[in-house]
Each structure stands twice: as structure tokens, then as C-alpha cells.
Amino acid sequence: MKTYLRMLRMIKPYTVQLVFAVVFMLVFSFMSIFSIGMISPFLKALFNKTDSGMVLELPGSEFSAPLAENSTDKKGSYDEAGISHEGDHAQSAELAEQVQRGTQQPKTLQPETEEARRARYEKLKGQFTGIQSVKLKFSEWVTGTMLKGTKQDALLRICIVFFLAALIKNIACYFQEILMVYVGQAVIRDLRNQLYRRLTNMPLSFYHQHKAGELISRATNDVMVAQQCVGLSFTKLVKDPIFLLMYLAVALILSWKMTLMALVLMPASLTVIIKIGKRLRTLSHLQQEQMANLTSTLQETVYGIRVVKAFAMENFENRKFMGQSQDLFKQVFRINYVMKLSSPLTEQMSMIVALFLLWFGGSKVFTGGVMAPDLFIVFLFMIFSMVRPIKSLGAVNNEIQSGMAAAERIFQILDSTPEPLDDETGLQLGSATGKVEFENVHFEYVAGEPVLRGVSLQVKPGEVVALVGSSGSGKSTLMDMIPGFYQPNQGRILIDGHNLPDLNLQSLRGNMGIVTQEVILFHDTIFNNIAYGLTDVSLTDVQAAAKAANADEFIERLPAGYETVIGDRGLKLSGGQRQRISIARAILKNPAILLLDEATSALDTEAEHLVQEAIDRLVKDRTTIVIAHRLSTIQNVDRIYLLEAGEVVQVGTHDELLAAGGRYKELYTMQFQRG
Questions:
Q1: What is the pLDDT of residues 241-296, one digit of tens each?
Q2: What is the 3-state secondary structure (H, E, C) of 414-456?
Q3: CATH number, domain 436-674
Q4: Whole-angstrom distance, CA of residue 561 vs CA of residue 585
Q5: Which of 99, 125, 137, 646 has the most Cβ atoms closer than 10 angstroms to its Cβ?
Q6: Which CATH superfamily hosts domain 2-25+168-414?
């Protein structure tokens, strides 16, 4: 329930639209009730009207008076509609008994004159108070407007009123549905935007704990399912209770006793709805998890299609995907098996009550003990009309439970703690000089499994420093800590003398450029990829950066030049071309601190030469920290830090470390021997 209320709070910005929607719902509901109420004058016009225009009251009708001579002076017996039937039915019963015994021949009652009926009617008016008085006035309005004139006139008038009521009802229906669709879609848009903003603001550690496919599923599938909470389900949750209350109110006015009888099975219906809803919520959680697994498998297959084909694993991946698809199918079918059970059960229980009232009330109408026949028909319409909103509310509970399972998964992300990226959080670094210091830094991803152990290093402004070591020694983790992707568990990281946690992350990262071994490009133009993160950049600036990165020549040979769309992750370009685009992006940003993660290790000789030339231009006059796998590329750096098992074991220049021997010389000798 808390989750649903939280979803509803997102409607607050659209209160005006919601209020108008509710107003149109009320108009729609009222006109629906009015249309049903018009059945009464319609029946009277057809069956209970003389050509003179005076309505004849049948036995048991609203304004029947005792037929016995002085019975109106007695304290009569009235039905729930305030109708007296004591005299007429007593006389009818006595007359029938005498005819049966043969003691009296049936007599034809003389029709009552119009003046006599009107006098009797005026006399009875004073007996009605409260709701009965309202009913009386409505009947007077119907008789005085709808039923005046000939039968044909009355019927035409009623048809016109029916048409106008239907027109108003349908116009109101259209506007309330349009407004509710606007509110529902606006809330889902806001929810999707909030989720995307939170995902982009989460630290890297969050992405290490969740698969990419799972997060994509939450941002797409879960949002679509959660839409039920503020889409169709919310519309039904507002409109159906309005309908239900109006139908119930009219039914109570017509016959409160019979209406109470109709509500006997309501607790049973609610019990069924609640139990089914709880079961659906559990099943929906499992469905969303299985959908996330399926999306994750699909995403991994698409991204890794080269590996799948290279290892001839198509059949294996197909079997894996089809197995997960079958599990999802079973779960969806299980949910629908439970969900579809709610509607027929609710309808059947409602129908039992309605049919009982039809039998019981109809029997009473025959003897004139309940209400006028035309009003009984209206009453039945009201009771039967209550079945649809009750059935709909049962279904909407199922939709809400399914939506809540998805919404809870979304709110798990929204409730996660993001990085403090706003401009007001932390110290603004301004234009950094580029000094970087690590003081006894310890870090671990998992408690008890240290990755860095007491690392200390210093990089002065403009220096080029290299990090080397075996795989898993902590080089990449150390590099990721400089932009604040991770915070140390112990020790300090200083940028220009400022403790990293005290700095505003946006201003910190604005002073850094990162070129990774795995180049990340976007499905966009070359111009936009080079100018990524910058505004008001001219083509001249982009071309200058591309020339410095040795990329301008191949870009100009492309059909659309800098406006060429390079495809998903830049797959239309070669590895060396993608790397040079990445270097051009860093050159254009002109950062004070440059972080390079062995940008040439996966390239051929010619591409490596071009990229290395670009890197040499890039590192000039800026602080640079390089992760190196090929030791031949770092012979001229200012200092080299060798890491093993998360600790700095050697520090010095290339020549100093070779002269000192140890692990660095071993690594260099192995690479030199391999050629």
C-alpha cells in the first residue's frame, strides 16, 4: 500500500488535470444514472398512459390509495417507497376469496374519475417527507414534463432526453479519459526520467552489483508494468467507486431493504479479491526477475555476438535463451491463471445476489408489496449495473498488485544513494594545476578482500607517471579512484592539496580526461562524439583536435565527413580509428589531468604508431598517469610505480628500475625476449 501511495504522490503536479477528470467522471456517472432512471417514464409512456395525458396508477404504484371507501382515513400500510397498499390488496384478496367460494360474482370496479384521482393524489402528498418527498417531486417533474400530451408526444420527448443524456455522457467520457491518459502518461514519463537520472548518478560500485540487462529491464519492462498503477488501474479506481456509490445511493432510495440484501455477498467477494491480489504480487515479483534475466541474456548475446560466432556457440545460446523464455512463459501463464480467476468469481457471486433479488422482488411486485413495476425495473438495472464496477475493481486490484511488484523494483533504485553531483555539494576545484597524491590508501570491493594496501604516490603538475604490474595488482582500481569513482576505505587522495571527498565531483571530473583501452563511443556523428560533454564547440575546434589525434585524414575520407554516424559503440570504425576519436575527444577537452589505460595494446603496428604520436601530443604540458602493459612505451616517463598484490613494490625511472633489478626487470626481460 505504501508503494501505491508513493506512486499516487507523483500525480500531485497534475492536480488540475486530475480535478477536471474527476468532474467529467461525475458528469458521466450522473448522466448514466439519469439514463437508467428514464426507463421509468419510458415504461409509463408505453403501458400506463391514456390519450388524455393522465397517468393511471396501477396497484402498487407510488401514489396508490386504498380503494375501500374510508380506508384513507386509517393508518395505512406503506411499502419502502412510501406507498400504501393495505386497502387495495385487502379488498382484492377478499373479493378473490368470495369468488372462489361462489358467494359473489366478480364485480367490475368503476374507473376512478380524473378529478377524484387528483383529489386523492393531493391528499396523499402530505404523507411524504424526506427522501420520499424528493421521489415525489421527481415523479411530478416526470409527469408534468416527460409524460404530458399524447403517448406519441411523450415518447418523442423521452427519446430526445435519452439522446441528450447520451451525448453529454459520451462527451464527458471522452474528456475524462483523455485527461486521465495525460496524467497517467505524464507520471510514467516522470518516473522513467527519475530512474534514468538516478542510474546516471549512481557510483560505479552500483554497476558492479547489477547486470546491465537487469537495469535495462527495470527502466523499460518494469516501468511499463508500473504504468498500470497510474494508468488504467487509477482511472478505474476513481471512476468505478463513483459509479458504485451512485448506483448504491439510487438503489437505497428505491428500496433500502432489498439493497442491503444485495450486499450480503460483498465480504465474500472482497476476501476473494484480496487473496488473489496477494498471490499475484508474489508471482509478479518472480515474473519481473525472469524478464530481467531474459533481457540480460539478450543484451549479452548482442554485445558478444563476435565471441558467440567465433566459438560456434549459437546453439548453446539459443537453448539458454529458450529455456529462460519458457520459464517466463510459465510464470506469465501462472499469473494470468490466477488473475483471470478473479473476474468470473466476482461476477458470479454478484449475479447470484441479483438473480435472487429478481425472484424475490418480482414476487413482491406481483402482490404489490414492494414498489411500482416501473421502479422495480429501474431498481434491477441499478443492482445489475453494480456488477460491472465490482468486477472491474476486482480486476484493478490484480493490476495494482502486478504494478506494485514492478514499482518496488524501480523504487529500490530510486532509493539508492547517488553520487553527490550537484553544483552546491563540495568544494569547487576550478582550473586544477594537476597535482595528485595518494597517502597510505587502502581499498577493498568486498570486506576482508583488500585490493589496495597502503598505496602512497605523488604526481607533480605536468609529470607523466606510469603504473605497471601483473593483472589484478590494483592498477585499474587505483586509476578509478582518481576521478572519485571509488572512495578509499583508509588513507587520503589529494588533488591540488584538497582531500578528494571534499571536492565537488563535477568540477573534479571536469579537469580530467580519460582514454581507455576499451573505447566507448556513441551511436552518433563523429563531431558529436569528439565534442561529447562540451557546448558551443565549433567545427574548427573539432577538426584541430582530430588533426592532433591523427584522425582528420580518415574522417575526411568518409562520405559525410564529421557528420558520419559511426553506429552502435562505433562499430563502423576500426579499432585504431575508434582510439584516435577517443584521443581527439580528450584533446578537445584539454584537461589538467589525463588518465590513459594502455590505449595502444590492442592495435596493429601502423595503428599503434599513429595513436602513439597522438598520445605524445596529448600528454604534453599536462599531468598524465598511464597504465602500461608494454614497457617499451614508457621508457621516457618521469616515474614508474610497480604494483603487486595491491602494494607499491618499486618506484623509479625506467633506467633506475632496470639497474635495481627485481620484478620490473623480470617483466621487461620477458617482454624483450618475446620480441
A1: 888 888 888 888 877 777 777 676 566 666 666 677 667 667 777 777 787 778 77
A2: HCCCCCCCCCCCCECCCCCCCCEEEEEEEEEEECCEEEEEEEE
A3: 3.40.50.300
A4: 16
A5: 646
A6: ABC transporter type 1, transmembrane domain (1.20.1560.10)
